[in-house]
UniProtKB/TrEMBL annotation:
Domain of life: Bacteria
EC annotation from Swiss-Prot or TrEMBL: 3.5.3.6
Active-site positions on this chain: C396
Annotated GO MF terms: arginine deiminase activity
Known pathway: Amino-acid degradation; L-arginine degradation via ADI pathway; carbamoyl phosphate from L-arginine: step 1/2
Source organism (scientific name): Vibrio algarum
Matches recorded under Pfam families: ADI
Designated name of the protein: Arginine deiminase
InterPro entries with a match to the protein in the record: Arg_deiminase (IPR003876)
Record gene name: arcA
Enzyme class: hydrolase
Reactions catalysed according to its record: L-arginine + H2O = L-citrulline + NH4(+)
Keywords: Arginine metabolism, Cytoplasm, Hydrolase
Annotated compartments: Cytoplasm
Chief localization: cytoplasm
Length: 406
């Protein structure tokens, strides 16, 4: 019986959740892509093919691949789940009571395959065949979205993250992504793979407004041995880190959280865009950001409901102590200054470790991949000409739900 447990970043990966980019990308245009958090418009079919190669690369490494769309369809087949999701995603506060009711009725009549496609991929007013007495539809243009597409669902890493014996259902910083979390809440609650399984929900599973406590999984590295490394980025706040840490400690699942204060800008949107764990004692880092000037904090439990927070001299010694290794190896982004900056932007540091010393990364990052190779790290390279335009690499596009400890 396989177990919902992620014990590290580098132990053998067993099961992972991906989302193949489909309908949501067809709704990306030059005029809306920025507010949907994409820097560019992707070629949809090519992105899908690249994603299939990524999924197949994982399967070739004996990793079971679950696809979000399929899980959502199977979850919607459960009546309570469907009702809960429609009430939450098509809420009276979002649409006003009249239009919300009409829209829910219309969607409830759809088959689950189509409904999942629309919840993930969006719906324009021009595609809505119903009339409603509400003011709202009359005040919108046909090309406006009734349901905004969720192209960032491609990055399954962020919406929820498994840490040791549980999961954090992350309250997302940006409005364009907040609806994603409800899909995962429904899947983890009702889908047969998860329902009735023994795991902890650390954070984010209540119908609350989490205010300033936001977290995204790209900032969370489960480095193993009871430690968790978290970046405080553009999208993850100290309030989010402390709330998650409190629940990790009270459940006894972690004994230390190391928090790094990252610059708050888009090129290092999440910690894993500038730093990933690729072997037991080895990290890939972008030295422009990850260097000795980085403010580093250690959070450890104190008694039942308290924690000790102290500033550490530097991140390297904090990690060496947590991982119980003598000396950390750091592989920096490859090439001269220009090449390193370009490759970091193209996710050279955002690799997914499949087992110690074996990673999946984009083939376009030639200089960094060469450095990995020289350091004895095997790179399974995948094409990312289209996928990479979403600003996320193999780690961003994967949510491990079962992985061995180190």
């Amino acid at each position: 019986m396989s177990k919902l447990y992620v014990g590290s970043e580098v132990g053998q990966l067993r099961r992972v959740l991906l989302n193949r980019p489909e309908r949501a990308l067809t709704h990306l245009t030059p005029s809306n892509c920025q507010e949907l958090l994409f820097d560019d418009v992707l070629a949809v079919e090519a992105a899908g093919k690249e994603h299939d190669i990524f999924a197949q690369t994982l399967r070739n490494q004996d990793v079971e691949v679950l696809l979000l769309h399929d899980l959502l369809v199977e979850t919607l087949a459960i009546e309570d789940a469907k009702e809960w999701l429609l009430l939450n995603q098509i809420s009276d506060f979002r649409y006003g009571p009249t239009f919300a009711k009409d829209l829910r009725n219309y969607l409830a009549g759809m088959d689950n395959e189509n409904l999942a496609t629309i919840l993930l991929g969006g719906l324009a007013y021009s595609e809505l065949p119903i009339q409603s007495s509400s003011m709202l539809p009359k005040m919108h243009r046909p090309i406006d979205f009734v349901i905004e597409p969720l192209p960032n669902h491609l990055f399954t890493r962020d919406t929820s993250c498994w840490i040791y014996g549980g999961v954090s259902l992350n309250p997302m910083m940006k409005a364009a992504r907040q609806r994603e979390t409800n899909h995962l809440r429904a899947i983890y609650r009702w889908h047969p793979t998860f329902a009735g399984s023994d795991f902890i929900k650390y954070f984010g599973d209540q119908d609350l407004h989490y205010d300033n406590a936001t977290i995204e999984g790209g900032d969370v590295l489960v480095i193993g041995k009871g430690a968790v490394l978290i970046g405080m980025s553009e999208r993850t706040t100290p309030q989010g880190v402390e709330n998650l840490a409190a629940n990790l400690f009270s459940s006894g699942q972690a004994n230390q959280v190391i928090a790094l204060n990252l610059p708050k800008h888009r090129s290092c949107m999440h910690l894993d865009t500038v730093m990933t764990h690729i072997d037991i004692d080895t990290f890939s880092v972008y030295p422009e950001i990850i260097n000795k000037n980085l403010e580093t904090w250690s959070l450890t439990p104190k008694g039942q409901n308290d924690m000790i927070v102290k500033q550490m001299p530097d991140y390297v010694s904090a990690l060496e102590t947590a991982l119980k290794v003598d000396k950390l190896k750091l592989i920096t982004t490859g090439g001269d200054n220009y090449e390193a900056e370009r490759e970091q932007w193209n996710d050279a540091n955002n690799v997914l470790t499949v087992k110690p010393g074996v990673v999946i990364g984009y083939e376009r990052n030639v200089y960094t991949n060469e450095k990995y190779d020289k350091a004895g790290i095997e790179v399974l390279s995948i094409p990312g000409n289209e996928l990479g335009r979403g600003r996320g690499g193999a780690r961003c596009m994967s949510c491990p739900i079962e992985r061995d400890s180190i």
